[in-house]
Amino acid sequence: MRVHLTATAAAAVRRGHPWVYRDGIADGGGHGSKRGEGKRGERVHRGGAAASGDVVELSAEGAPFLGRGLWDADSAIAVRVFQRTQAPPLDERAIAERLERAFALRDGWFAGRDTTAYRLCNGEGDRVPSLVIDRYERAAVIRLDGDMLAPWLDRLLPHLARALGAHGVRSIGLRARASAAAGEDADGKKLAHLHGPPLPDRLFVRETGVAMEVDLARGQKTGAFLDQRDNRARVRALAAGRRRVLNLFSYAGGFSVAAALGGAGRVTSVDSASAAHASAQRTFRENGVDPAAHEFVTADAFDFLEKARARGDRYDLVVCDPPSFAPSERAKPRALGAYRRLHTAVARVLDRGGILCAASCSSHITAEDFLATLDDATLERDDLRIRAIHGQPEDHPTLPAWWEGRYLKFVVLE
Ligand code: SAH
After folding, report:
1. C-alpha count within 13 angstroms, C-beta hemisphere, residue 348
2. Cβ < 6 Å from ligand 1: which residues?
3. Which terminus of the chain has a smaller tally of CB atoms within 10 A, N or C?
């Protein structure tokens, strides 16, 4: 099947951008996503003809072959581009080869790092669009973005099991997509078993020498925020000699335990979910840190900051890693406002001489956008400098043309 692109969409594909939006398809006609019209071999019109998972060939004015991708009948992204060369054909073997390359790279990256949880495949960034695979010890958890690879799973599974097995992975599970509430069991489990021994609901993994509890069945993302691994190690180093550390939006306490192990006197973790604190406390204990020497507050971070300021509480290291405020381009102005309000409030409890680590995981907020929410006017002070700006670690690779993949900002101000 053939999909004819607009000049703009074709240029993006040439640059290596892995997505074709529905409005990047040229001879469209109407919008909508009616399925089942047209026959194989015909040109695919906007939203018509193909079914999710079908291989489509991309063409444009003056370019009979631009590449090959998989069709998604429902998502805003109509095609994810896998190849820009004629050979090899796009089949499960070609995908398996890319996965093997991705897995082998991780062996090199993580050798000797006392780390048993990492992203084995970062979808588009590893040139296997829409397929995310995270490793937790001997278990791999798959997450699919969009629908196009779902019809491929059965065929891919034997290849996956073999390739993952060669790297010591025994079990494979599938995470229900965030939007797919129907994928949740009555008991809130979001993990389906695909292969090998049953996956544990909960387990401890190692991350840069630190034990970390991960909730595979019910946790966020595929269980943990693996993208903050290196930043957690950085916080551990920054925490030496700090008297009072504040970790806002602390989730399972990754930054908190890092700070405690780094030598912080007292770490205050703030999250609106109490279950997250229970997990954080188990992680503290597993690392030989007494949670009773630290503080876990179930509260809205904004409320907490207001009260802390009123009490006159001050911190000499603050980590602030909120959930994405901008899920879409349209939400951007409001998100920037929310970051500003948050950072103003954070700066009011940050001691002179303190360190502020501010993170954003919204791809719609660029690094410059984000830095503007940390300027002097917002922070109401003139004593801080940017010590470093970090992003995501190597197991979350991106592509030069795929700016959407570079979502993580981690700014250290001192
Ligand atoms: N820093 C964490 C990831 C943060 S995820 C890590 O490195 O693992 C975002 C967390 O923010 C979730 O645990 C969620 O429960 C919490 N959260 C969301 N809105 C909140 C709010 N208004 N106040 C406090 N916590 C909130």
Report:
1. 17
2. 225, 228, 249, 251-252, 254-255, 270-273, 276, 300-301, 321, 323
3. C
Q: Whose CA is nearest to atom 22 of ligand 1?
A: 300
> Quick check: 13 and 66 in contact, CB under 8 A?
yes
From 225, 235, 245, 251, give the residue whose CB has the most ligand 1 atoms within 8 Å, as the site to mutate.
251
Which pLDDT belongs to residue 180?
Answer: 47
User: How many angstroms is it from 251 CA to the middle of ligand 1?
Assistant: 5
Q: What's the DSSP call for residue 1?
A: -
123: phi then psi, degrees, rounded to nearest 5 = 50, -125
Q: What separation in Å is there between the alpha carbon of 364 and the centre of ligand 1? A: 19
- Per-residue pLDDT at 34: 42
Cβ proximity of 315 and 244 under 8 Å: yes
**Structural contact between residues 275 and 298, judged by C-beta atoms closer than 8 angstroms:** no
320 among known catalytic residues:
no
Q: Which atom of ligand 1 is least distant from the CA of 321?
A: 1
Q: Tell how strand 139-144 and strand 171-175 pair up.
A: parallel
Q: What is the pLDDT of residue 145?
A: 94
For 6-42, what is each residue's pLDDT tens digit?
999 999 999 999 999 999 999 754 344 444 344 444 5
Model confidence pTM above 0.85: yes
Tens of pLDDT, residues 55-111: 999 999 999 999 999 999 999 999 999 999 999 999 999 999 999 999 999 999 999
For range 231-249, the mean pLDDT: 98
- Which helix (H) or strand (E) covers residue 306, if one does? helix 301-311
Q: What is the pLDDT of residues 150-181, one digit of tens each?
A: 999 999 999 999 999 999 999 999 998 754 44
Nearest CA to ligand 1 atom 21: 300
- Pocket mutation for ligand 1, best pick of 272, 320, 360 (most atoms within 8 Å of C-beta): 272
Separation of CA 162 and ligand 1 centre (Å): 36
**Three-class SS of 319-345:** EECCCCCCCCCCCHHHHHHHHHHHHHH
Q: DSSP labels for 358-387? A: EEE--TTS-HHHHHHTTSHHHHT-S---EE
Q: Compute the distance from residue 247 Cα to the ligand 1 centre, in Å.
A: 10
pLDDT given for residue 279 in this prediction? 98
Identify the CA nearest to 345 among candidates 375, 381, 310, 305.
305
